[in-house]
Design goal:
With 180 residues, the chain is mainly alpha-helical. The chain is built from seven helices and four strands. The strands form two sheets. A two-stranded antiparallel ribbon has the order 1-2.
């Protein structure tokens, strides 16, 4: 969307399920966190977009991954983009446990980022409050699911949407398209 319109996107940390134990837990097929039809829809959408997606036997706690992303943001936008994308791929495409400091540090290292620096950052709890406060702020806005998109103070859109929906909202906001 930001390639097509003169809009900027900013990811903010949002812990969807902070009640999940810090190490995550094994998925219980009798009580799935995600309905089977939602999982099937997401898998089909990911496949159509050429993105990896597989079912994980684990439900992860995202707190460390979100704090790591904030650390990467401090390193610069390239580091943030790399780590953020790599964490999504590791969890949704490779079924890795992004709950653990070891996995998040390994993912960062695979992206050429300072794994030792990130480990020290996570072990001292840096950015933990940022994640918690951002989550609370988003819940105050009524956000209870991901993805959720906020367009300034005017529109909120929940769930994955097609390009035309984004284009319609941005058009209503008067956001011009980029010159090609």
């Amino acid at each position: 969307m930001v390639r097509e319109f003169t809009a900027e996107a900013e990811w903010v940390p949002f812990e969807l399920h902070p009640e999940i134990p810090a190490q995550g837990y094994e998925r219980d097929e009798r009580r799935p966190l995600m309905k089977p039809e939602v999982r099937e829809y997401l898998a089909a959408e990911a496949q159509q977009a050429g993105l990896p997606f597989q079912g994980s036997p684990l439900i992860a706690n995202s707190h460390n991954a979100l704090a790591a992303s904030e650390w990467a943001r401090d390193q610069g936008s390239d580091a943030y983009d790399k780590l953020h994308h790599a964490i999504f791929t590791a969890y949704f495409g490779e079924a890795r446990n992004i709950s653990t400091v070891d996995q998040v540090v390994a993912i960062a290292g695979e992206q050429g980022l300072d794994g030792a620096g990130l480990r020290a950052h996570l072990e001292r709890g840096a950015h933990s409050a940022t994640v918690t406060e951002s989550t609370a702020r988003m819940r105050e806005h009524g956000i209870t699911s991901t993805p959720t998109f906020l367009f300034g103070d005017r529109y909120m859109m929940m769930g994955a949407q097609d390009f035309e929906t984004f284009a319609s909202v941005l058009g209503r906001l008067g956001v011009p398209r980029r010159d090609r």
